[in-house]
Specification:
With 101 residues, this protein is α+β, with helices and mostly antiparallel strands. The protein has helices at 14-30, 64-72, 75-78, and strands spanning 2-9, 37-45, 52-60, 82-90. It has 3 helices and 4 strands, in the order E-H-E-E-H-H-E.
Length: 101
């Protein structure tokens, strides 16, 4: 199954985001603790197009509980950077990863 992870930062979290960005990216790119495949990941921006205000990921996993455990280990979440995190099942209908339906 696919899942969308949508996370919005608490106000004024840019210094924390900058400090944790390397650890966050390393975790997302190379974690092996969870059977989760990250297909898309990146920052969300404010209307100015440059100020990071959150994160979006599209992942593949067997179930929601697996994704919840994965998200709990994301460095940004562990540092309480996020004001809100939503995880929703996602229906990939346009340009799914090759070989996936």
């Amino acid at each position: 199954m696919y899942f969308a992870i949508y996370a919005i930062d608490k106000p004024d979290q840019r210094p924390a985001r900058d400090r944790l960005r390397g650890a966050h990216r390393r975790f997302v790119r190379s974690q092996t603790e969870f059977p989760v495949t990250v297909h898309v990941a990146g920052p969300l921006f404010a209307d100015d197009g440059t100020t990071m205000v959150g994160s979006l990921m599209l992942v593949e996993a067997a179930d929601l509980e697996t994704v919840r455990h994965f998200v709990a280990k994301i460095p940004y979440l562990a540092a309480q950077l996020f004001e809100r995190v939503e995880i929703r099942p996602y229906g990939w209908s346009l340009h799914p990863p090759s070989g996936k339906k």
